[in-house]
Specification:
161 residues, alpha+beta, seven-stranded antiparallel sheet, two-stranded antiparallel sheet
Length: 161
């Protein structure tokens, strides 16, 4: 019997701004409804999640502002690059997310676009928007930590000769 291989995942796009601008509370996996040319373009890493977000419209979940460049050989089968795309989740999960979104400053943010077992998926996060002063505090903490590490490296008493 052949050895079982580990599932392979390939990340096509990540949303770097998401972790900076939001406190991530929990993450969920969602399928995404795409056309054939969109899948081919995504597999060439020609997708961007910057400034994208998810919203519940009616009883369905949609992803907005995700940009997928047109596939070079797509011709007339290419679709609009920034169209709204339907996300595929179970009804219970969508209802649970709707409960989160009723709270203040909460939103659904895509973190990454990846492929698992040949299927393109989106990692969605429930996030609470950070305020400007929270971002400043985080930057200040990071700079102090960096200075402390730099001082520890240069401290002559710490060197062992």
């Amino acid at each position: 019997m052949p050895a079982r291989r580990e599932p392979t995942t390939t990340t096509f796009a990540t949303n770097h701004k998401a972790r900076r601008d939001y406190d991530i509370l929990e993450t969920h996996e969602a399928g995404i409804a795409l056309t054939g040319t969109e899948v081919k373009s995504i597999r060439q890493h020609k997708a961007s999640l910057d400034d994208s977000f998810a919203r519940i419209d009616g009883a369905e979940l949609f992803l907005y502002n995700m940009h997928v460049s047109p596939y070079a050989q797509g011709g007339r089968f290419n679709v609009e690059p920034a169209r709204a795309r339907k996300l595929l989740m179970h009804r219970r999960e969508i209802d649970r997310l709707a409960g989160f979104l009723t709270q203040k400053r909460m939103t659904l943010v895509p973190l990454r676009l990846y492929q698992q077992h040949g299927i393109v998926k989106v990692e969605l996060a429930v996030g609470r928007g950070k305020r400007i002063f929270e971002k400043r505090d985080r930057i200040r903490e990071r700079e102090l930590d960096r200075e402390l590490r730099r001082a520890m490296r240069k401290d002559p008493r710490r060197s062992r000769s």
